[in-house]
Every structure is written in structure tokens, then in C-alpha cells.
């Protein structure tokens, strides 16, 4: 029987480099899955606010899984969406919605 908890996968230097480049080149980076309702809500919120973002669809893009693993290693956030603003992990949809409710989302993005 397998272990209940396992350590995160080893992340290649290439995947980590790709993730870091994406996180630094995009004000908002979302690691997403096309079938994820929470991911859709996060992207809709950003679109509605006019906040540009880069979405990596982990289940569609060739290097999506390895980039997602690098993001998980950095953020210790293992669900989708996994959202970064200005290279800093903010968590998932719940955290993004909370930032919007408190007025901090635009401050983080624009500030």
C-alpha cells in the first residue's frame, strides 16, 4: 500500500527556469486546468477587472505539468488554480476573491 503523504516530485532545472521566467514576465500568472470551475472564476474576475494575466492550462500545454510542479515547489500550493502576482504566490481562487473583496487585488497588481 502506498504512503498517505508523499514528497513533492523533483523539479528539473529547465522546468524551474521556465516557471521563474513566466512568473517574472507576467504580472499575473495562473496555473489552471480547463475543466476547473475555480480556475474559470479566477480568470473571469481578472478579465472583468481588466487585469491582464497569463494562464498556463496544465492539462493542455506540452510543458504545463512540469511548470505546475515547479510552481507547487515554490508555493507549496497543490490545488488549482495556483496564482502568482508579481512572482509572489497568492494561493488559489478563494484567496484571489478575498483580495478583491478587501480592495487589495488592484493594489497588488498596480502597486
Alpha-beta content class: alpha+beta
- Major beta sheet, specifics? 4 strands, mixed
Q: What is the radius of gyration computed over CA atoms, rounded to a whole number of angstroms?
A: 14 Å
> What is the count of helical runs?
5
Please state the overall shape, judged from the principal axes of the Cα atoms. globular
Order of helices and strands: HEHEHEEHH
Range of helix content:
40-55%
List keywords for this structure.
four-stranded mixed sheet, alpha+beta, 15% strand, 5 helices, 49% helix, 111 residues
Question: How would you summarize what this structure contains?
Answer:
Helix content is 49%, strand content 15%. It has helices spanning 13-25, 37-49, 64-75, 93-101, 104-110; strands spanning 28-32, 54-57, 82-85, 88-91.
Please, could you describe this protein's structure?
The protein is α+β, with helices and mostly antiparallel strands. It has five helices and four strands. The protein has helices at 13-25, 37-49, 64-75, 93-101, 104-110; strands at residues 28-32, 54-57, 82-85, 88-91. Strands 2-1-3-4 form a four-stranded mixed sheet, with helices on both faces. Strand 1, helix 2 (37-49) and strand 2 (54-57) form a beta-alpha-beta unit. Helix 2 runs parallel beside helix 4 (93-101). The radius of gyration is 14 Å and the shape is globular. The mean pLDDT is 93.
